[in-house]
């Protein structure tokens, strides 16, 4: 029998590893059982893990260096930001928006929300931004919701004679923004701050993060996304528990409830978030864009279809078939769609 080449041997090793992985219980993707997968595989003379395959050899690890941040000091009208810090990474498509009211546990006032809306608009429009991080200044709070000192009869009032609930507009904006938004949470994410992290696409939490709704204790409630998205995330029973009892939950409890994607030590919070950004950024931006629309579509009803439908039109405009209609109109001729396939 001819001797096996090194390549054949590697292929065989991979196949054995793959079979061994399939023989393990379904939960083998967790870290403890993947180490048992490692054990089984190494005990039959091969080394393998979920990372030992061509997929990981091709795509590899993302870089781990800290980004260099450039401050965007003002909005499009040249007005300086006061309640937020808006930054973009140099030579990397990452934007970071930080609520900057640490003395009030990053509670927001209408002005804070207006600045957040302007920064998110800028990040949406900027083609050099592919993913946006939302966070709070310091380690004590991501955001503690609406500034209760400014509560008025019709919302929150700061520099105007009437109140606003403009955080609801911000929630819709984040939900519909065609780029991933990642909440990076240290400390309290409570009240309206908890809702902000829930409407983000992903949440990375530090071990010191604390989550909860306080509304029914302070005479408030969010009957919009704050209720419906929560119910989707944690299930209807747990959502009732969160709103009716107004308890606080640790980061690890929040992870078990499906409220957050991962929990990391506080000093790893930003590096881990950047890692997630970089992994997302290596993937197709159009795929990510359409997936965000698709993942929201059913829950968002007509507005969800609007997002997904808009993405379909956007892609169609880039095709020859789409251009034929436009060209024919501009050339005052009948369009000829005969050459385009009618796919099954
Ligand atoms: C977040 C806390 C649990 C932190 O407690 P801790 O003991 O660490 O800190 P202090 O309590 O001493 O706070 C330090 C300092 O910050 C001030 N502060 C903190 N949060 C707020 C706040 N939300 N508003 C105003 N001020 C705040 C605090 O007073 C201290 O100031 P000093 O001058 O005394 O130093 C704890 O702070 C806490 O429980 N905070 C309140 C959380 C809360 O109830 N948030 C409001 C929920 S309602 C809401 O957010 C909301 C907003 C909306 O815009 C809505 C819109 C539409 C529908 C619903 C909405 C909604 O529900």
Automatic annotation (TrEMBL):
CDD domains: crotonase-like. GO terms for molecular function: 1,4-dihydroxy-2-naphthoyl-CoA synthase activity. Residues 329-344 have a biased composition (Basic and acidic residues). It catalyses: 2-succinylbenzoyl-CoA + H(+) = 1,4-dihydroxy-2-naphthoyl-CoA + H2O. Gene3D superfamilies: 2-enoyl-CoA Hydratase, Chain A, domain 1 (3.90.226.10), Lyase 2-enoyl-coa Hydratase, Chain A, domain 2 (1.10.12.10). It is an enzyme of class 4 (lyase). It comes from the Eukaryota. One of its GO terms (biological process) is menaquinone biosynthetic process. GO terms for cellular component: peroxisome. Residues 323-344 are annotated as: Disordered. It holds the Pfam family ECH_1. Keywords: Lyase. Its EC number is 4.1.3.36. PANTHER family: 1,4-DIHYDROXY-2-NAPHTHOYL-COA SYNTHASE, PEROXISOMAL, NUCLEOSIDE-DIPHOSPHATE-SUGAR EPIMERASE. Belongs to the enoyl-CoA hydratase/isomerase family. This is 1,4-dihydroxy-2-naphthoyl-CoA synthase. It comes from Nicotiana tabacum.
